[in-house]
Amino acid sequence: MHTPPAARRRHAQLIAAATRLIAGCAQAASEIYDPIARNPGQDVEVNARELLLLASGAPAILDHARNADCERWPEETAVEDRNTFRAHAERAVLAEAAAVLDTEPAGEPVAWPAGVPEITPEHDAAMAPIAAAEELMADITAERVQLLAHAHDAHPSEIVAEAITQASGSACLALAQAEDILTSDPSAAAEMALTATRYLADLVSVASLDV
Question: How many domains does the chain have?
Answer without folding.
Answer: 1
